[in-house]
Amino acid sequence: MDIAQQLPALVIVLPMLAAPLCVLIRHSALCWALSVFTSLLTFLSAFGLFNQVRADGVIRYAIGGWAAPTGIEYYVDMANASMLLLVSFISLIVLLYAYESVKKSVVKAKHYLFYAAWMLCLTGLLGITITGDAFNVFVFLEISSLSMYMLIAFGSNRRALTASFRYLIMGSIGASFILIGIGFLYAATGTLNMADMAGRIPDAEAQRAVLVAFSFLTIGLMIKSAVFPLHGWLANAYQYAPVAVTAFLAGTATKVSLYVLLRFFFSIFGTEYSFGYMLLNVVLLPAAIVSFILLSLVAIFQSDLKRMLAYSSVAQVGYIVAAFCLATEQGLTAGIVHIFNHGIIKTALFMSVGCMLFRLGHTHRNSLDNLISTMPFTVVAFIISGLGLIGVPLTVGFVSKFTLIGAAMEKGWWLVGALVLLSSLFAVIYIGRVIEIMLFRKVRVNEPAPVGMKEAPLSMLVPMYALIGVSIWFGVFGTTTLSVAREAALVLLGGYQ
What we know:
Strand content: under 5%
Helix content: over 70%
Number of helices: 19
Distance between the termini: 27 Å
């Protein structure tokens, strides 16, 4: 058997098998090692798929040998091959980083459950991305969501339970809307295979059912992607979850939901239907603009770094959605490349904040006076990642925002381009204020000397700097990610093959 032909199945099977193994092993260090090893194998499988797709084109893998549309099919093109690579890479990096952090923030007796939930979450996120079956999207969505609720609830603060419950309520509503939308699509087309569905929608007799499905899917995916004003679950979930979980979710969960939004509205419904007939941009564009302006302003007034970055994440989702609303090759390229770049940037930022939390026991901005003197590597990591979030030249954030502004100008949406620049100035304020405190503000005399002020463990710093190295590389050589994003955009605009 050629292992290369089984890579689509291995990407899902490996983490799915690792989850029950963690429950059976029940040893903290062994469960962590198994999770890291599984993530490494998953990443290598995703990398192999990515190379196969670039060389040979679309991969269609029939589960159990049952051909589509009768059986379930895994469908891999440049769009989801790139997402598989991003999700598996971030899982690997954050797991390498997580060992010491989890030891300190999660009760040892629950470590095996923590890593089992992580593997299930990874399984769900990868499954959502690779499947070519619409109902399977919902199934994997529930797998990832249920494990996310569990991961968030592992937070040491009691409010983590409240945050998890709130996310459960919002997530359940979003998932229900998505399931109803998929049900109406099945009623209209008679198939759940996404490629087959895309071909049948234009000629479907029940166009009213297609319209209802479109509406339900729009709301459901807005909730899951944390698009304003349906983002209420995100801030508390990010703030009170263990910091390793926050870093993982920030780089993957909303990004996968945005990918599903892309897949449905560009490949299944089609660009002309979604943005021409249905005028989806009339709904999404105002929400996106308000998101990256208003939530950037909200981030300025946050004193807790995790909460500040959480609101910043909603603002960055606004950039991505605004790029999608352009419904052009250049706009879609900008949105896709920002999914990748923001995933890397925000994960690195939360990892640096996690290092501060590990030593200081808190992430309050106003108590980080002159932190550079005691935690220089952590502070430098925060600065480099923060500059990427702002969009300074030679960073990955600049590549994304420059492409987005260029796409807006190309379509004549000058105001959108100007507002993107304005919101970037807000990012200068909330990131710059933290940097100023950590670099220049002297420790106040009337405050007691902080305890435990030393650099984070090497096991946390090395993975963090590996991720920062990747972000610097893609910032300097921006054409690498742009070329992949452009290929993915062309695939999505062209629909299923």
